[in-house]
Amino acid sequence: MSMLSADIAGIGFWTRGLPSWAAACAYLHDGRIDESAPAKPAPRLLAANERRRAPETVAVALEVALAACEYAGKDPADLPSVFASMHGDLPITDYMCATLNEDPRAISPTKFHNSVHNAAAGYWTIGAGCTRPATALSSGDASFAMGLLEALAQLGAGDPAVLLAAYDSQATGPLGVITVSHNLLGGALLLAQPGDAALARLQVEFVDAPVPLAAGKLAAHVGANAMAPMLPLFDALATGAGEVWLHAGPSQALRVQITR
């Protein structure tokens, strides 16, 4: 595969204790955690009643997506988007399975509505008034890498900018034994055609090579989340590293070169 390039025009980040990209950067430099931060984001794109009802996965995806757009000064309504998640919403999946086993007629219509993998993408397009294409993608523990490749491919097809948002939540119930995921994590990048990079420029190459588990400082805080494979890139963007390798499947990786 030939090398793909993009500028990062905007960035968003949220996890418990680090409720913004600025907070994540501060943590990487001095170890500060915001103990007063809320346990769940309250995305401004949604009306107050929808914010209360939205599951954590939707809330964190919309929070970081909007933050990336605002960082770049871009109107969310104008952007195609890619939403990547390994699991979607595991707590709702656990609820659905338990309720179907115990009392199928008691299924909550709202939870059923939110159980689909593209729930976050749907909330985003409605809340942002966006009619551009929105992609919901899952590829196991390579979901972030495949989401990045999809966004870069859309740029290569001519889109001037593409929003990438990645997120996962905790695993609960019997599913928590099968697949381990803790905490709540979301990250977003507003990727644009190479030009005057607002934050950094990425050059990405798909290679055959194994990648070790994320081991940076962000991984020490939230590395048990299913979306932890994205953390090396966010670590690198905050600390100024020039290269990072992202897990992209069994013995496969994305080699990402970062210039500023």
Tags for this entry?
23% strand; 8 strands; 37% helix; 10 helices; globular; Peroxisomal Thiolase, Chain A, domain 1; alpha+beta; 260 residues
Structural notes for this entry:
The chain starts with a strand and ends with a strand. The mean pLDDT is 93. The protein has helices spanning 21-30, 48-53, 56-72, 90-102, 109-114, 119-128, 143-156, 175-178, 217-222, 231-239; strands at residues 4-15, 81-84, 134-137, 161-168, 185-192, 200-207, 243-249, 252-259. The chain has one domain (4-198): Thiolase/Chalcone synthase (Peroxisomal Thiolase, Chain A, domain 1, 3-Layer(aba) Sandwich). Strands 3-2-4-5-1-6-8-7 form an 8-stranded mixed sheet, with helices on both faces. 37% of the residues lie in helices and 23% in strands. The relative contact order is 0.21. The chain is built from 10 helices and 8 strands. By secondary structure, the protein is an alpha+beta fold.
